[in-house]
Amino acid sequence: MIEVKNAVKTFEGFRALDGADITVPDGGVYGLVGPNGAGKSTVIRHITGIYRPDSGEVLVEGEPVYENPAQKALLAAIPDDWYYFQSATVADMMRFYRGFYPAFDTARYERFKEVFAIPEKAVIRRLSKGMQKQAAFWLTMCCRPRYLILDEPVDGLDPVMRRQVWSIMMSDVAEHGTTVLVSSHNLRELEDVCDHVGIMNKGKVLIERSLNDLQENIVKLQAVWKPGEAPVLPKELEVLHISHVGRVYTYIVRGKAAEVTARLEPCGPLMLEALPLSLEEIFIYELGGEHYAVKEIIL
Amino acid sequence: MNWEVSTMQSKRSFFNRTLFRKNLTRFWPLWGIVSAVGSLMPLYVLLELLNGGGGNVTQVQFTELLYTVAAMAVPAVSCAYAILCAMLVWSYLYSPRSVGLMHTLPVDRTCLFVTSVLSGLAMMLIPYAVVGALTCLIALVFGFFDFTAACFTVLAVVLMTVTFFGLATFCAMLTGNVFALPVLYLLVNFLAPLLEALVVTLSSQFLLGFTGSSQGIFDFLAPIFGIYENISLEYVPTRGPAEACYLVGFGTLFLYFLAGLALLGLGYLLYRRRPSESAGDVAAFRGLRPVFRWGLALLSALTLGYLLYELFCTPFQWGCYANPAFMAVCMAITGLLGWYAASMFLEKSLRVFKGSLKSAVVVCVVMAALCFAISADLFGIEDRVPALEDIQAVSIADMDLRATYFTEDDREMVERIVSLHRALLADKEGLRREAYGDYHCLLLTYTLKNGTALSRVYRFSVQEDRLDDPASWSAQVAALYRDPALAVSQVTIPDNGTITSIFAYDFVNGYGEELLESSEAQSSSAKVLYDAILQDAREGNIPGPPVFPGDGEYPYDVRFEIEYRTVEERGGYQHHYDAIQLYPSMEHTIGTLLDLELVTEARVELWNQALVEQYGEDALG
Questions:
Q1: Cα–Cα 20 to 30 A to B194, which of A274, A277, B278, B498?
Q2: Closest CA to A168 of A188, A143, A198
C-alpha cells in the first residue's frame, strides 16, 4: 500500500502540496485526477522518492520511501518526461535498468521485442515521441515493479498501442497483484481501468473513493415538468448543477439514484429518469464546488 | 513470482557498478581526447630518442622530465580537467528530467555520491595512467627507467587529482546550474587572492604609501597558487658526475589532498540534503541565495565601482589619491547592479525590481560604508612602521636605485631608513597632495621576523631649502642616497653566496663587446675584479642615485654582470644576478681592468671621449 499522509511541499512560497492525503490500496489501479497545477506530478515525485516532503509522510508498505532503496526497489515509474541518456539505445537503457532493479526480467525484455516494434539498437533520442513512450513502457514493465507509478502514461501512443500497453498492465495487476497509480487527464480511459480515484485540487485530495462509490454517490436526473410550472426541488437535496432545454431539466445531485428519485417523485414531474455519470462529469461537477466550474464564455 | 525474494535488498550498497560503468562509457570522449593529447608527450620523447639515439639520455634526465611534468603541468591540467569531469559526472543534478531518473533508482544518495566521485576520479586518472605508462614503457625500453621517481610522480598526481576534484565536487553541490558550475569553481579557486587584490588595490587609492601589491597572504586558499608556490625540483650535487633531482613540496600536496578529502566529505553532506527540485537553479540551497546576492554585489562594487571611478571621477580627486565620496557613489551604484544581476539569475526573471526598494537602500548603504571604512584607514595602515626589533631586512629602491638590501646586521642603515619612513609620515598631508613634486618614487620593503613583508611607496622631490634640517625627510633622503653604504650593499655578495660568473661588457661601440667571460667561480681574474669593485664601493667611488634632477655622475657604457648563488634553508640553491655600471671615479676597478690587460689605456680614453661627447666636459668631473 502507498500512503501519503498530510504531505506539504512548498516551492518558493507556492504550496504545491497542502496537506495531501492519499491511500493507494494494493492490487488495483488508482487514478489520480485533477486540474493543471493541482499537485499530481508533485505527489508522484514524492512517492517515487525524488522529493522529500516539507512535512507529512510518504510511505510504501509502511516505510518511508525517501532515501530508502529497499522501498524504491518495489517501485518503477514512468514520468511525463521520461529521461534517457543522450546517445543511449533501448539495449543500453535495458542494461542500465538491469543494474539497478533486482527484479529486472530479462526474459520478459526479450518477449517484449515482439510487442514493441522498436529497433533495440536505435538511439532513443531519434525515435518519435510515441516510440520513446513505448521504450519507457518496455523497460519499466521489465523491472517487474510491485508498484507501477505512471504520470500521463499513454500520451503520444496510438490507440492500438494504448490498448496493448493497458492490456499488459492489467494482466500484471491480475496475475501478479501489481498496484498501478496513474495520473492522467484522459478520464474516459481511466474510467475503463481504475478501481479507485483520487481527485486533487490546489495541493489537496478532495475526494478519494472507489470508482463505484463515486458513481453511486452522484446522479444525473432528467425531468420534464408541466408547461409554465417552475420546478421547486426539495431543500434537502444537494444539487450541484441545473440546466434546461425547454421543459427538459437536467439535475446533478449528490446522493444515491434511488433515494434522489424517490424524493423528486412527489414534485410531480411528467417524466423523471436517473442516468449514470461518467468520471469526466463527476470531475467537472465535483470541482465546480471548488470554483473550477466550466465557464460559459461568449465571445 | 515471489516478490519478497526478487526485490529484497540484502545489504546497504555504497557503490553501483552499473552507474560507474555507464559514467565511463558515456563520457569516454573527454578522457579519451585528453589521453590522446597527453600521449603526444611520450610520443615526442620517443621520436627524440629515435632521432638522437637513446644512449645520451640519463636516468637523472628521465627523473627530471617526470618531476618537471608533475611540478609544472599537472597542477594546471588537474585544475582545469577536474571541473570538466565534475561537470559531466554531476550533470544529472542540473536537469529536472535526469535528476528524476537518478533519484528514482533504488539506491540511496550515499551510493550515488560514492559512485559518481569514483567515476570522476577514474576519468581524471585514466589519461595520467595512459601517459605515465607509455612514458615508463619508453624508459624501460631505452634503459633509463627510475622506479622511485615514477612512484613519487604517481603520488603527486593522485594527491593533486583528489584536491581539485574534491573542490570541483564541492562547487557542484552548491549550484543547480551546469553553466554556473565552472564560474563558481573558477571563483572559489581564486576567490581569496582575488578579494585580497581588489581590497588592496582599492586601499591603495586612498592610503598614503600603500603599494597596491598583494602580499599573497591568502594565496594558500587558492590551491593552484599554493601548489605552484611550494612544489619544485631540487638539485643536489652527488659524488658522481651528475646532480640528483628531487621533487619537493609533498607536505603541501598532502595538506591540499586532506583539504580535498574534507571538501568531498562536505560535498557528500550537502548532497544528502540537496533538494532535487533545485535542478536548474543557480543556488542549490535557499540559504545560499543571500550569499550569492551579497557576493556578487561586493565583487561588482570592488571591480566595476573602481572602473567607474577611473572612467568618470579621477578629475575630482586629490593628487593621485581617490575622493572617498565619489568612490562611495560608484561602489553603491555598481554594488546595486551586482545585487540585481544576482537576483535576476536566482529568479530566472528580469522582473526583480518590484518591492526591492528597502534591499536596494541597504545594499547602497553597505557598499558606501565599506568604501568609507577602507578610506578611513580603520586599521592604521598608513601609519604602520615596523619596530626595529621586528625587522629582519629592509630594501630601498627608487627610479635610479635598484633594490638595495640591509639586514638587521646593518643596524645603523636600518635605523636610518626607519627614521626616514617616520619623517615622511610626519608630513602625510603634503605628500598626499603631491605638494613636493614626484621626482622620486621611494619604495621601502621590510621583511619582518614573523615571515611577513610590508611595502610602502612615496612620491616626492627633495626640497633644497630643507637640506639644512637633518630631521627633515629631504635631508635624510639626500644623506642616505649619498652614503657609500648603498653601493657597498649593492655589490656585496651575502655570506651564504658564491659567485658563479662575472661578465664585463663594453657597449661604447654600440654593441656588447665581451671584456671578461668567467663562468668559473674561482677564476682568479674574476675574483680580483670583484675585489676591486668592492674596494671602490667602500671608498665611495661608486656614486649613489641622483638626489636632484641632473645630480650625480655619468657612467661609462660598460657594465659588469655578477651572478651568484645562495644556499636555501630548505636545501637547494637560489640564483641571483647583479648589474653594475662602471663610473670614471671607480679608479680601483679601472686599474684592475688595465692590470689584467682586459682593456688598454686607449680603450679607457675612448670611454672618456664617448662620455664627453654625450654629456660634455663636466661629465668627467
A1: B278
A2: A143
